[in-house]
C-alpha cells in the first residue's frame, strides 16, 4: 500500500496578516508559548509558513519597505509543535529530537522571493559601511531556478532550506540567554575589535514587547506582558538551534535538536529558496513563504549520550546537522582570498571575520568589472 500524503499540521493563509492566522504564529522563543499542533514520532507531516518578514516586503522595485522595516517582528515562525512517541508519551528534557527534512519548497501560487540589505541606520549589516542604503532584488522561481528582473542575465539553481528551526528553551536556558546577551549589550563596543570594521547595531536583540507575537497567548493580558518581556528574539542561533541559516540544510537532511521542555515544542520558519555563504546582506538568502514535510524521531536521553556541553551547565550544547545528498552540481568556480587586514590597512590578530569581509569585497569588486553595479553583486553573489 502506497504511503499516505503528509498530514498538514500548520496551514497558513497568505492573504492574512501574521496575527490573523487560524493557528497563531510566534516570533519569540519561550517555554510557555503553547503548542498549536501535535505529531507522533515517525509520522509524515507538513508545516506551512509565511516569509520571515511577515509579508510586508512587496513584489516591486522599491526598497522603501526594507528601509522602513520594523525589525522587532522577525522571524515569523510556525508552531510550536508538540512531539510524542508511538505510545503518546511526550519528548522530555534531555532527549534528542531527530527531525528529517523529507521535502520542501515554495507555497503554490507564491513562487517568488526577495533579497536585500538593511539601511545603515535601521539594522546595518556586515558590509553596511560600504553599502549604507537599503537595497532589494525580487526573484521569480522556475522549478529549481531563480531569476531577477533587477539583475538581468543571472539565473541559477537554488538549494531551498529553512533558516530557522528549533525547540523551545527551558526557563533556565532562557535566563542564560537573556543574561549573557544583556551583558554584551551593556558592555558596549570597546572590548570588541570586530566593531571597528563592522557597523551592526544593536549588538544583541534583547526581549521587547514591540512587534511581539506569542501564538495563542492573548495580547494585553498580564500573562502576555510577562512573557513578552522575557521571551528571546529569534535573530541569533542558540543552543536550541534557532536561526542556523545553513544553506545545505535541504531535502534529506536531518537535524538533531536538544529537548529542553516536555513535548520539545518544535518551531520553524524563515524559508530560503537559496542562500549565499555567510548571508552577507541582511538576507543573503532569497526569502520566501514555503512548506516543510518532516518526520521526527525521539532519542531518549540523547543529549547526555551524544552532545557534549561547551559551557558551565549541561544546557550549553548545540544541535548536530546531518546534511542531505541533494545540492546543485558545479564543476568550476573562483575562490577569493581575504586576509586579517582591514580597509585602513590595520593588521588584526587571527580575525576570521575581517578576513572573510575582505574576501567578499574582493569578489564584489571582481564581478563589478563585468557590467553589474556593486549593489547588484551584493544581493546576488553574497
UniProtKB/TrEMBL annotation:
Coiled coil: none annotated. Pfam families: FmdA_AmdA (PF03069). One of its GO terms (molecular function) is hydrolase activity, acting on carbon-nitrogen (but not peptide) bonds, in linear amides. PANTHER family: FORMAMIDASE C869.04-RELATED. This is Acetamidase/Formamidase family protein. It comes from Arabidopsis thaliana.
Amino acid at each position: 500500500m502506497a504511503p499516505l500524503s503528509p498530514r498538514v499540521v500548520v496551514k497558513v493563509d497568505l492573504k492574512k496578516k501574521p496575527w490573523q492566522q487560524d493557528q497563531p504564529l510566534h516570533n519569540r522563543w519561550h517555554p510557555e508559548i503553547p503548542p498549536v499542533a501535535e505529531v507522533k514520532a515517525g509520522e509524515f507531516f507538513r508545516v506551512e509558513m509565511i516569509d520571515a518578514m511577515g509579508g510586508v516586503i512587496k513584489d516591486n522595485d522599491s526598497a522603501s519597505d526594507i528601509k522602513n522595516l520594523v525589525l522587532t517582528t522577525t522571524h515569523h515562525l510556525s508552531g510550536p509543535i508538540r512531539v510524542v512517541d508511538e505510545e503518546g508519551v511526550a519528548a522530555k528534557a534531555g532527549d534528542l529530537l531527530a527531525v528529517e527534512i523529507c521535502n520542501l519548497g515554495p507555497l503554490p501560487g507564491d513562487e517568488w522571493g526577495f533579497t536585500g540589505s538593511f539601511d545603515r541606520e535601521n539594522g546595518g549589516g556586515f558590509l553596511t559601511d560600504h553599502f549604507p542604503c537599503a537595497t532589494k532584488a525580487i526573484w521569480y522561481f522556475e522549478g529549481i531556478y531563480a531569476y531577477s528582473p533587477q539583475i538581468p542575465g543571472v539565473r541559477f539553481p537554488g538549494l531551498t532550506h529553512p533558516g530557522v528551526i528549533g525547540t523551545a528553551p527551558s526557563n533556565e536556558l532562557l535566563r542564560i540567554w537573556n543574561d549573557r546577551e544583556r551583558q554584551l549589550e551593556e558592555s558596549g563596543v570597546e572590548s570588541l575589535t570586530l566593531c571597528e570594521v563592522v557597523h551592526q547595531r544593536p549588538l544583541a536583540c534583547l526581549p521587547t514587547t514591540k512587534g511581539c507575537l506569542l501564538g495563542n497567548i492573548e495580547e494585553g493580558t498580564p500573562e502576555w506582558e510577562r512573557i513578552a518581556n522575557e521571551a528571546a528574539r529569534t535573530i541569533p542561533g542558540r543552543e536550541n538551534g534557532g536561526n542556523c541559516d545553513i544553506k545545505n540544510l535541504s531535502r534529506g537532511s536531518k537535524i538533531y535538536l536538544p529537548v529542553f521542555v516536555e513535548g520539545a515544542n518544535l518551531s520553524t520558519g524563515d524559508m530560503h529558496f537559496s542562500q549565499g555563504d555567510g548571508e552577507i546582506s541582511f538576507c543573503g538568502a532569497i526569502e520566501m513563504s514555503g512548506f516543510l514535510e518532516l518526520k521526527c524521531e525521539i532519542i531518549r536521553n540523547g543529549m547526555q549520550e551524544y552532545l557534549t556541553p561547551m559551557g558551565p551547565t549541561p544546557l550549553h550544547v548545540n544541535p548536530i546537522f546531518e546534511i542531505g545528498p541533494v545540492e546543485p552540481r558545479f564543476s568550476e568556480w573562483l575562490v577569493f582570498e581575504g586576509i586579517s587586514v582591514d580597509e585602513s590597512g590595520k593588521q588584526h590578530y587571527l580575525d576570521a571575520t575581517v578576513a572573510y569581509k575582505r574576501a567578499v569585497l574582493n569578489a564584489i569588486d571582481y564581478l563589478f568589472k563585468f557590467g553589474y553595479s556593486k549593489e547588484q553583486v551584493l544581493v546576488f553573489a553574497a
